[in-house]
Design brief:
Blueprint: H1 4-7, H2 16-33, H3 35-38, H4 52-59, H5 61-78, H6 94-118, E1 123-125, H7 129-163, H8 167-181, H9 186-191, H10 193-214, H11 218-233, E2 235-236, E3 248-250, H12 255-277
Parallel strand pairs: 2-3
Antiparallel strand pairs: 1-3
Helix pairs in contact: 2-5, 2-7, 4-7, 5-7, 6-11, 6-12, 7-8, 7-11, 8-10
């Protein structure tokens, strides 16, 4: 089965051991860049010692490290352009990324309003304007760095590397690894590892399938950024991995309802995205 996004790997060096080495290099770069996070974290409780938005500003450095590491790997190990992790085309379509983000953000708000109408007791107004303004600036500017780094690593590098051997293995393994990468998140520990993994792995599989379907990671890049910005600024919940003073707070993490909301959002997005982006019905090129 051929796919333009996967086949672009053949324009450079594509040996399996290079991907293993590249993955390790990206992780080492993330570890080096993450050192300042230790300075703003209570080592006993593992909780931030500064406001959530300032903690995010420091923690985002590890994702800068991933991007730098992947750029190095693509340039010196694989000898192909860095942008091929995003698209096989000549240019990255930033407009598609922005539209995808706006579409996901709008659907998420609509679903949240539905839940608010049904379960108003779940929500509390938590806006503190003096804290929200710097959080807004930090979130809008820096969260896309975090989400882009994850997309480049999982839907770009790992999916292409494994998918160039077996495309379905690439989809499944990249999705599972994305889930496992969130295994230590506070919300995962709160609801239980296996229950939490069922959500995060499903997210990873959806993003991987969307990447293969669209033959680019532009749409997942937009969704991922919109999702994390929404969770950081609009509606957050206790024990979130991104602690902040959002506009609203969910009083308790209702995981079954969260899954229902996720599924509604996914299917609505797929329906509308197919209309907006004129996605071809076939997943694979012939």
């Amino acid at each position: 089965m051929k796919n333009d996004f996967i086949d672009i790997t053949q324009t450079g060096k594509n040996s399996g051991w290079l991907y293993l080495a590249g993955f390790v290099i990206a992780l080492i770069a993330a570890m080096i860049f993450s050192f300042p996070t230790v300075l703003v974290t209570d080592l006993k409780t593992q909780k931030p010692t500064v406001a959530g938005h300032w903690y995010l500003a420091v923690a985002i450095l590890q994702f800068v490290g991933i991007i730098v590491g992947l750029w190095f790997v693509m340039r010196f190990l694989h000898n192909r352009p860095f942008k091929t992790l995003i698209t096989p085309l000549a240019e990255i379509n930033w407009k598609r990324i922005a539209i995808s983000a706006g579409l996901w953000f709008g659907i998420t708000i609509a679903v949240e309003l539905l839940f608010y109408g049904l379960f108003p007791e779940m929500y509390s107004f938590s806006l503190k304007i003096n804290d929200f303004i710097p959080a807004l600036a930090v979130g809008l500017l820096l969260l896309p760095i975090q989400t882009t780094a994850e997309e480049l690593l999982f839907r770009g590098y790992i999916l292409q590397g494994i998918g160039s051997r077996n495309i379905w293995a690439g989809i499944i393994i990249s999705g599972v690894l994305f889930g496992l990468a969130h295994g230590l998140n506070p919300e995962t520990q709160k609801v239980g590892f296996f229950i939490g993994m069922s959500y995060y792995i499903s997210v990873g599989l959806f993003f991987a399938l969307l990447t293969i379907f669209d033959k680019k990671i532009e749409l997942p890049m937009g969704i991922h950024a919109a999702n994390n910005i929404y969770s950081f600024l609009v509606v957050s919940y206790p024990d979130s991995v991104l602690p902040t003073n959002s506009i609203f707070m969910v009083n308790e993490l209702n995981f079954p309802l969260m899954i229902v909301g996720w599924l509604i959002t996914v299917f609505t997005y797929i329906f509308l995205a197919n209309k907006i982006f004129n996605l071809r019905p076939e997943i694979f090129s012939e």
